[in-house]
Specification:
The complex is a heterodimer of chains A (351) and B (264). Chain A has 351 residues and is of the alpha+beta class. Chain A has helices at residues 49-57, 80-83, 100-110, 115-129, 144-157, 174-191, 202-208, 226-231, 236-241; strands at 10-18, 24-33, 38-42, 67-70, 73-74, 85-88, 162-166, 194-199, 211-216, 219-224, 246-253, 256-259, 262-265, 275-280, 286-288, 296-304, 308-314, 321-326, 336-340, 347-349. Chain A contains nine helices and 20 strands. In chain A, helix 6 links the parallel strand 7 and strand 8 (194-199). Classes of the chains: A alpha+beta (351), B mainly alpha (264).
């Protein structure tokens, strides 16, 4: 398969969206997406991620003043059919009146590509999706995972400038979702196409995104690489939405958090603030015998999750602290334990 | 044995009612092939009445068929895009328009015919042509086409399908032809059968709109009942049955298919 990196760079300038007379669904957003980059729009439902995607697609027009550029070309007033985008819908939107091959070849046929060339490209796409033997099946004879692959093959068959994916895995069950996510990741890398992916699943976002745009209440909460989003969340919303997080509110003194169960040292960013909101990831905390730590708590619950043990420790802070410990750890409910956190793993969040 | 008895009674009653309803149809058709109805079937069976009907009324049969299919073409060309447009617009305006289109169902055919005559009856050549009846039939059958297409449009997520097609570069017209129409085909088929059947059997409107030179089959039927001998009128009914029953059966099959596919 020919590798094509002719994807476009995308720029959203000041794009907001108001539906009717109701409140703004999307605050003015400015966003740059590099050529060939995979950007994931992540957030809970109603955060504006789908509106943003549909704006890039050309299915929704931004409010006056917003501009959308593909490679410095203003496409704001172009409808979707002129933008040369490929789109995978949550419901797949496959055409029930056509076979698998006809679905995949639809975009090429519409563009007036000669029939023989359509056939070659369709076969290429079906091979990529592992669907060669399904070419002449009708859509309702396919499983959910197969439909998803047809939708993807159809979206990229006509070599779009941008690939847009609207929760493409949400309709599938968990095991299949994980497998297809890996396939999808490999495919996006091999195509080298600019891709924008909408999801509410933070694991999916981490696995697929070069960068993640976390959205909340119609605006961007943070933009960053997956590890930045995870380790350095910009605010409490991002910290809690992306992965599990312990959020503790405490007073800060001489670079230490003063907690009911003891003192916890804060990394270099310790400021002169008196009150702090600190975030610690559950896996960053280790459990040690009480005498080896200055921060003590009591085990309230444990649950064995196979690859790890999740422990809830009370008395250490005003709210229970969640810890993901190695699965070899054995503690009982009621045990007094010491907790240790590397100072660099304590992240102070803006109040 | 009270249970068996009650079943027997119910069964007999059902059979009796069915016979009561179907007997007139059988008698009427039988009369059409009986040599002399006054003397009963014992006078022998014959096809000559049917031949006679053909000689007398062939033009009305042909006219009815041509009218029905022209009506169908008109309702397809106008009704299918109209249904799609109404579905796309949605909201209160679309509902209002749908109501207006449906209005002819509630108004007696005679009243519609009168309105057409008052408004357009003055233009002689139009008034005297079959086109005048065609207009009446299109007005009368349009709601059936529009509604049956809209029902299917409502049952499939046509806007997402269209977005899919648009994302692949299809213009509005291409989307309509390649995606919308093929996927509402069940509705179009059901609507078509309805339109043809209704147009073939329409009497009220047509009776008002017709001229002695533009009689349709049902109008001819009334004419033959009034002025011909009973056997000819009955043979005529037989011809009408032969034309309309296959359409009704097809409609039934279509309906079953649709309900089955919507269940699965």
């Amino acid at each position: 398969m020919k590798k094509h990196v002719e994807g476009a760079a995308i720029r959203l300038e000041n794009c907001s969206k108001t539906y009717g007379s109701s409140a703004r669904a999307l605050e003015p957003v400015t966003l740059n997406i590099a050529r060939g980059e995979t950007v994931v729009l992540l957030g809970p439902s109603g955060c504006g991620k789908t509106t943003t995607l549909r704006m890039i697609a050309g299915l929704v027009a931004p409010d006056k003043g917003g501009r959308i550029l593909f490679d410095d070309q203003d496409v704001t007033d172009q409808p979707i059919e002129k933008r040369n985008v490929g789109m995978v819908f949550q419901s797949y939107a496959l055409f029930p009146n056509m076979t698998v091959a006809e679905n995949v070849g639809y975009g090429l046929k519409i563009r007036g590509v000669p029939r023989a060339d359509v056939k070659i490209r369709v076969n290429e796409m079906l091979a990529m999706a592992g669907l060669e033997t399904f070419a002449n099946r009708s859509i309702d004879q396919l499983s959910g995972g197969q439909r998803q692959r047809v939708a993807l093959a159809r979206a990229v068959a006509a070599r779009p400038r941008v690939l847009l994916l609207d929760e493409p895995l949400t309709a599938l069950d968990a095991a299949l979702r994980e497998r297809l996510r890996t396939d999808l990741d490999r495919l996006l890398r091999s195509l080298g196409i600019t891709a924008i992916y909408v999801t509410h699943d933070q694991q999916e976002a981490m696995a697929l995104g070069d960068r993640i745009v976390v959205m909340s209440n119609g605006s961007i909460a943070q933009i960053g690489r997956p590890n930045e989003i995870y380790f350095q969340p910009a605010n409490r919303f991002v910290a809690e939405f992306v992965g599990a997080a312990n959020i503790v509110e405490a007073s800060l003194k001489d670079g230490f958090l003063e907690l009911p169960g003891g003192r916890v040292q804060v990394g270099s960013e310790a400021s002169s603030r008196r009150e702090a909101i600190a975030m610690v990831r559950p896996e960053a905390i280790s459990v040690v015998p009480p005498e080896q730590s200055s921060w003590i708590g009591r085990v309230e619950s444990t649950s064995f999750l196979g690859d790890r043990v999740r422990i809830s420790v009370g008395e250490a802070a005003s709210t229970p602290i969640i810890i993901d410990a190695p699965n070899s750890l054995s503690v009982e409910i009621g045990d007094r334990v010491g907790l240790v956190i590397p100072p660099s793993s304590v992240r102070l969040l803006p109040a | 044995m009270p249970r068996k008895l009650s079943f027997t009674l119910q069964f007999s009653f059902t059979i009796l009612v069915a016979l009561f309803l179907i007997l007139p149809a059988i008698m009427s058709m039988l009369a059409g092939i009986t040599t002399n109805y006054a003397r009963g079937v014992s006078s022998g069976l014959t096809a000559s009445w049917i031949i006679e009907v053909w000689n007398l009324y062939a033009d009305t049969i042909v006219r009815s068929l041509v009218l029905a299919f022209t009506t169908l073409v008109c309702t397809l060309l106008v009704g299918v895009p109209a249904a799609y447009a109404l579905h796309t617009i949605g909201g209160r305006i679309a509902r209002l328009i749908e109501e207006v289109i449906t209005l002819p169902l509630a108004i007696p055919g005679l009243a519609i015919a009168l309105a057409l005559i008052i408004t357009y009856g003055g233009s002689g050549s139009f008034r005297q042509s079959s086109a005048f009846i065609l207009v009446g039939h299109v007005v009368f059958t349009m709601p059936f086409m529009v509604r049956s297409v809209m029902a299917v449009l409502g049952s499939i997520d046509v806007s997402t399908l269209e977005e899919g097609a648009a994302s692949l570069g299809a213009s509005r017209w291409q989307r309509f032809i390649t995606v919308v129409v093929p996927n509402v085909r069940p509705g179009i088929l059901a609507g078509s059968l309805m339109v043809v059947t209704l147009s073939l059997g329409e009497f009220n409107l047509t009776w008002m709109l017709h001229t002695p030179l533009t009689k349709t089959l049902p109008v001819g039927l009334a004419d033959s009942y009034a002025s011909m001998r009973l056997e000819i009128a009955s043979a005529y009914t037989l011809v009408f049955f032969v034309m309309i029953v296959p359409l009704l059966v097809a409609m039934q099959i279509m309906g079953q298919k649709q309900s089955r596919s919507s269940k699965s």
